[in-house]
Amino acid sequence: MKTQNALILLISGFALYTTFLSFKQHTYDVRIINGFSNNSSLPLVVWCLSEDEGDIGGRALQERDDYGWTVKTGLFWSSSRFVCTMKWDGKRKKFEAFRSSRDRYRCGARRQCFWLVKEDGFYFSNDDGVHWIKDFPWFDLRFSGFLILHIY
Predict the structure, then answer these.
(1) Residue 2 pLDDT more than 90?
(2) Under 8 Å between Cβ of 129 and 64
(3) Using CA atoms, how far apart are residues 36 and 67, in angstroms rounded to an integer?
(4) Distances in Å between the alpha carbon of 51 and those of 3, 28, 48, 120, 141?
(5) What residues have CB less than 8 Å from 125, skipping those under 6 apart?
(6) What are phi and psi of 94, to 5 degrees?
């Protein structure tokens, strides 16, 4: 009987502990920066949506302007996702600015998810924008919906 009570107590304690951890939150700083070198007459238009929070709005960014928000996620169970549409000079691109399953580790210990948008594509940084890594171009043929045939 003592073993059974100890087992019930152990399982109850574990369930209480995991419930407590699921309410603990992490906060991420997500930021999109206009990194164009000469576009003073054409702003970068950013508009973002979240499945959880709905339409979070947008901005028209001039050179070096930024648009940012914070994301709160659970420690273990979170499905937070923010999708942004970018428009500039006839180009349009939709991308995931934040997805908790991807960015839990990608955004680093500081939980910073920074995007620099330039003429040739989208760059990511998790260290105050010191080191940028190109993540993808404005137009990616793999996802364009066109079938490309190579003729030899």
Answers:
(1) no
(2) no
(3) 15
(4) 46, 17, 10, 29, 27
(5) 112, 114, 116, 131, 132, 133
(6) -105, 135
The radius of gyration computed from the CA coordinates of the chain, to the nearest angstrom, equals: 21
What is the pTM for the complete model shown? 0.74
Dist CA 30 CA 115 (whole Å): 8
The total of other beta-carbon atoms located within 10 Å of residue 75's CB is: 14
In this structure, of 7-21, 24-38, 111-125, the range with the lowest mean pLDDT score is: 7-21
Token digits of residue 37 = 């070198």
pLDDT at 139: 82
pLDDT-derived band at 136 (thresholds 50, 70, 90) equals very high
pLDDT digits (tens, 9 = 90+) for 97-111: 999 989 988 999 999
Where does 35-101 show beta strands of DSSP type E?
44-50, 54-61, 66-74, 81-88, 91-99
Return the SS3 of 133. strand
Sequence-separated (6 or more) residues with CB below 8 Å from residue 37: 63, 118, 119
Residue 48 has a CB neighbour count (10 Å cut-off) of: 21
Whole-number mean pLDDT of the chain? 81
Residue 133: what are its φ and ψ, rounded to 5°?
-120, 125
